[in-house]
Amino acid sequence: MVQDVSGVGQNGLLSTPAVSAVVRERVGADGSKANGAFILTASHNPGGPNEDFGIKYNMENGGPAPEGVTDKIFENTKTIKEYFIAEGLPDVDISAIGVSSFSGPDGQFDVDVFDAASDYVKLMKSIFDFQAIQKLIACPQFSFCYDALHGVAGAYASRIFVEELGAKESSLLNCVPKEDFGGGHPDPNLTYAKELVARMGLGKTPDSNPPEFGAAADGDADRNMVLGKRFFVTPSDSVAIIAANAVQSIPYFSSGLKGVARSMPTSAALDVVAKSLNLKFFEVPTGWKFFGNLMDAGLCSVCGEESFGTGSDHIREKDGIWAVLAWMSILAYKNKDNLTSGKLVTVEDIVKQHWAKFGRHYYTRYDYENVDAGAAKELMAHLVKLQSSLGEVNKLIKGVRSDVANVASADEFEYKDPVDGSVSKNQGIRYLFEDGSRLVFRLSGTGSEGATIRLYIEQYEKDSSKTGRDSQEALSPLVEVALKLSKMQEFTGRDAPTVIT
User: Fold this and answer.
1) How does it assemble (predicted)?
2) pLDDT band at 236, cuts 50/70/90?
3) 2 pLDDT exceeds 50?
4) At residue 149, what are phi and psi to the nearest 5 degrees?
5) Which residues contact 91 (CB under 8 A, 6 or more apart)?
6) Do 215 and 322 touch, CB atoms closer than 8 A?
7) Residue 446: is its pLDDT beyond 50?
8) If DSSP states are collapsed to H, E and C, what string results for 73-108?
9) What stretches of 139-211 show up as alpha helix (H) in DSSP?
């Protein structure tokens, strides 16, 4: 007789990072471990019956299926001629923890409904010094706010921040998970997390007394946004700062980092930290599976991508709550002598100290969402064609802005995986300038309609006297060049991006 076991989180709520932890850590009553997991998620897109819905498969290491597997799955979908429906299955109450058994055509089948948070909370407590974070949260001078945007992170926020760390319930915003995310867009950025942004003193009608620390999660809790009082931390800076402070602030990393990695569009802030700390460094295509390969080979401890994803080798997914706890750990460490008296070291202080030491990568991303797919492809083809004559490109640039450096090289990013030797081509169009500035153009396909063009603009400033400028002001010459170079308005009809981060 064959016995199959299927596990599901209580009430059907499991965050993407928690799924990875369950696959990697959870052992069944019979000693079995999961071979993989299906995640049903809208990710960071609007969800509900009339919005996005995705099916994602994670492998036995807890990470997203690699391209070799997803390509085979896609090829198989082309040959499907029929499908079968299992009728007469008993209802399983997924609100009640326990195992339900019934017989199927191949033998007994068990459904194990388990506490969605217990494995994940246990893992977080093995990584971070919860007592140090508790002391920070208990400090009268410290306050924080966490916004789950009505996504699945809400199922973990109360358990971790309130029950384990002693925060007040009032610290939590939108932490009741809803099927349609309350009608909102669960993408943790300055555009969509309006309530948190206002509370942190950055909105059009900001709160007069913002908390010291704020954070948001996306729909499936793998992305994060970190804010200080009236201060936004870019995801590119966030991963660099976590890497720079991990060894002294987070017990899990006390013996050192194996290496660090970032996605290609992410700013080079992490590169500078890696060089300074003499760490292995990797630049990979967008997609967490590339980080997973490095981690499985013991080459990478901390990684991140500019699209609000940060994580480490504790699992094989980006992890929004992990990133928040990492920042809380850094704040707790920096303030270990200030909790009873004196002024707290703030999020803004930590970021500016980092810039003073490593330099600042002025950085922004323009998203043009739901662009006509044909127009988007024409724009990208135009950018590739331009790369064949850098002389013409630089002539065009000087005609737009004489104060912008020349392009030194341009290409379509290609990555050869150092672990399995696989090659990923056409991962983004790059223009690399002589002064270290970069323009990167990518098409993103995570939405359900049209195409999203992402434009990344970056400029490095090492002079500490010049690291305090407004980011959009500092980048405005490069923005102007990027829009003219790409003929953005001509191809897309858009005179402004949908989102600026």
Assistant:
1) Monomer.
2) very high
3) no
4) 55, 35
5) none
6) no
7) no
8) HHHHHCCCCCCCCCCCCCCCCCCCCEEEEEEECCEE
9) 154-157, 194-199
- Between CA 101 and CA 92 the distance in angstroms is 9
Q: Cα–Cα distance between 310 and 290 in angstroms, integer?
A: 14
* C-alpha closest to that of 133 among 350, 349, 331: 331
* 482-485-487-489 Cα dihedral, nearest 10 degrees: 20
Question: Which candidate, 311, 252, 266, places its Cα nearest to that of 63?
Answer: 311
- The whole-angstrom separation of Cα 252 and Cα 246 is 9
Distance between alpha carbon 244 and the CA centroid of its chain, in Å? 18
Tokens, residue 286: 């967008």
Averaged pLDDT score across all residues of the chain: 91
Active site residue 471: no
pLDDT at 230: 95
The backbone region for 359, taken as left when phi is positive above 0, alpha when psi lies in -120 to 50, beta otherwise, is left
How far does Cα 80 stand from its chain's mean position? Answer: 34
Q: Which two tokens stand for residue 470?
A: 């407004």
Which residue among the candidates 6, 15, 32, 43 is catalytic per the annotation? 43
How many CA atoms, within 13 angstroms, populate the side-chain half-sphere of residue 274? 20
Residue 31 has pLDDT above 80, yes or no: no
Neighbours of 320 (CB within 10 A): 32
Give the full edge-to-edge strand order of the sheet including 360-371.
407-412, 429-433, 438-444, 451-461, 360-371, 499-500
